[in-house]
Specification:
Mean pLDDT: 89
Strand content: 5-15%
Helix content: 40-55%
Order of helices and strands: HEHEHEHEHEHHEHEHEHH
Number of helices: 11
Distance between the termini: 56 Å
Strand order of the largest sheet: 2-1-3-4-7-8
Structural class: alpha/beta
Oligomer: single chain
Radius of gyration: 24 Å
């Protein structure tokens, strides 16, 4: 009788311990869930990096969408004098951020973020119709990796070592889904791009250690879409395809913003 009573008491005690253990696990799981959600909520900084033949003004629509959703958005103005100068410009902005940051690059800006993305503030990379070279590779290697579209208007360097986009091809080759008026303004505001930006190799590829997202512009005439896909796949980036020209961040800002927000929310 005493043995049965003792066994009953031991069973009751064991159940009580198990219940306490389960409660502790549930509380801990809830705390971890809350911590992860808080960590995700902290990624509110977005830094945008433009490419060659452009400036930061093209990000206006994207800026407005993201800021209305509560993000702190900063646009880097690349000097376009060398890859080092452009990476330094991005790092100056990144160093000023108050927490984790998603770094976004368009076109040649992808090469810039591949290097600048090693900054400790950067938690994710987003490539918009962009180059994503590996360590030791430069932009020109990927420009020349496939036959260009007939509309492509990238001209050879001039006698001072700067590269421009052909005015006659700018609308069709660079901004085919924008109005001619918009394309004309973009051409007029393009920055001269030093050939050094294209021929300097990347020292360290940030996409090897940080989550990456790649947007393919399916109607791109400045970078062959298959070249974008190849680079993104190698970088193990999550790929999104958007129908649009090389400047999809202007013609399709909502679609591009969606990927950037996904990158911000996906950081753990």
């Amino acid at each position: 009788m005493k043995t049965k009573l003792r066994n009953k008491m031991e069973t009751k005690s064991l159940k009580s311990c198990l219940n306490k253990y389960l409660v502790a696990v549930i509380i801990l799981s809830g705390s971890l869930f809350a911590f992860n959600n808080a960590a995700r909520a902290q990624v509110k900084n977005i830094v945008l990096v433009h490419g060659a033949f452009a400036d930061g003004s093209g990000f206006k629509a994207l800026y407005e969408i993201l800021t209305k959703k509560g993000y702190n958005v900063t646009v880097v103005q690349n000097p376009l004098t060398s890859l080092k100068d452009d990476v330094d410009a991005a790092n100056r902005i990144l160093d000023k951020q108050d927490g984790p940051t998603v770094l976004v690059g368009h076109s040649y800006g992808g090469t810039v973020i591949t290097e600048a993305g090693n900054n400790s503030k950067v938690v994710a990379l987003v490539y918009i119709a962009a180059f994503a070279p590996d360590k030791g590779e430069n932009t020109i290697k990927w420009v020349q990796s496939a036959p260009p579209a007939p509309e492509n208007g990238i001209l050879p360097p001039d006698d001072k070592g700067f590269v421009y986009y052909d005015k006659a091809k700018f609308h069709g080759g660079f901004a085919g889904d924008l109005s001619k008026t918009e394309a004309d303004f973009m051409f007029a505001s393009q920055g001269p791009t030093s050939v050094q930006c294209f021929i300097t190799p990347v020292a360290e590829a940030a996409w090897k250690t940080k989550p990456s997202y790649g947007i393919v512009a399916t109607e791109d005439k400045s970078i062959v879409p298959d070249v974008e896909r190849t680079m993104y796949k190698r970088a193990n980036a999550k790929i999104t395809e958007v129908k649009g020209s090389h400047v999809i961040f202007i013609s399709q800002p909502e679609a591009v913003a969606k990927v950037i927000i996904e990158a911000a929310n996906g950081v753990k």
